[in-house]
Amino acid sequence: MTEIGCPFCNPLERIVKSNSTAQVILSDPRKIPGHTLVMPKRHVEKPWELTAEELSDIYALIFDVEQKLINGKLGDGVDVRQNYRPFMQQSKLKLDHVHFHVVPRSLEDYIYAVSEKYDTELFAELDDDEREAVTKLIED
Amino acid sequence: MTEIGCPFCNPLERIVKSNSTAQVILSDPRKIPGHTLVMPKRHVEKPWELTAEELSDIYALIFDVEQKLINGKLGDGVDVRQNYRPFMQQSKLKLDHVHFHVVPRSLEDYIYAVSEKYDTELFAELDDDEREAVTKLIED
Q1: Which residue of A122, A127, A139, A140 is the best one to mutate when testing the B interface, meaning the one whose CB has the most B CBs within 10 A?
Q2: pTM, whole model, 2 decimals?
Q3: Is the Cα torsion angle A72, A77, A82, A83 positive or negative in sign?
């Protein structure tokens, strides 16, 4: 299942590492040096449609990359992020083929300085009505 | 392996859903309504120390929660994020017990307006020297 024109189905010489069902490429453009993408080889758009083997292969690569980025001093820690955003049009910065960002992080790094420092403003206490409504939605 | 004083090892009445080795709680404080946390029951601090069963159980819950948040109209999409940040002190907003944030998202939502709109400034082209250095670090 390869989608014509999907850059992640046809990564050509960009593959840095792979296993049976998953592959690693470097993000380009990238947020910070070491910003890496791990994804299934198969064109999957909804994360919950990944097979057990794909999920396991993806995380084998993520865990390997995380430790190498830290050992290689590109960060003191690492964030992993997977965005499912069907409300955005596919573009150079948004591809529909499921992928996991692996991003080296350090204290008050460039990402923090440019955008993440605003994150703390977002947090608010969970009130009782919201707790009840979200619990009811999720628990079943 | 339960760490005394770790709120995620001792979540008490906060558990919304669980399976053999993983559990779901609501983030409190939260960034946006529906902000949920999925984590192993066991106190694991390094993500690559999760067992295959824990990873599989965690993602069974993540995939379930993602679809419920979207079906329940809390978002049109969803982000999943796992931060490994040993460089930060444990606090109310930073816990060492590995956890995955599941966050409902929509076009130009509150998270975008407050912090994420600055993210696009971060991206830069990957130059040849950087590509070579990062590839060498990761490929082996």
Answers
A1: A122
A2: 0.96
A3: negative
The tally of domains found in chain B comes to 1
Each of the 140 residues of chain B gets a pLDDT tens digit; together they read 578 889 999 887 789 999 999 999 999 999 999 999 999 999 999 999 999 999 999 999 999 999 999 999 999 999 999 999 999 988 877 899 999 999 999 999 999 999 999 998 999 999 999 999 999 999 98
| Helix or strand holding residue A55 (H, E) | helix A52-71
Is residue A123 in some structural domain? no
Q: Are A61 and A17 in contact (CB under 8 A)?
A: yes
Is A119 a domain residue?
no
Token output for A133: 């409504």
Backbone φ, ψ for residue A66 (5° rounding): -55, -50
Query: Using CA of residue A41, residue A42, residue A47, residue A48, what is the dihedral sign?
Result: negative
C-alpha count within 13 angstroms, C-beta hemisphere, residue B42: 15
Determine the residue among A129, A134, A140 to mutate to test chain B binding: the one whose Cβ has the most chain B Cβ atoms within 10 Å. Answer: A134
| Residues of chain A with C-beta less than 8 angstroms from the C-beta of B140 | 68
CATH number, position A28? 3.30.428.10
Place of tokens 């990957």: B126
**A29: cis peptide before it, omega within 30°?**
yes
Q: HSE-up of B121 (CA within 13 Å, CB side)? A: 11
Interface contact B115-A93, CB threshold 8 A: no
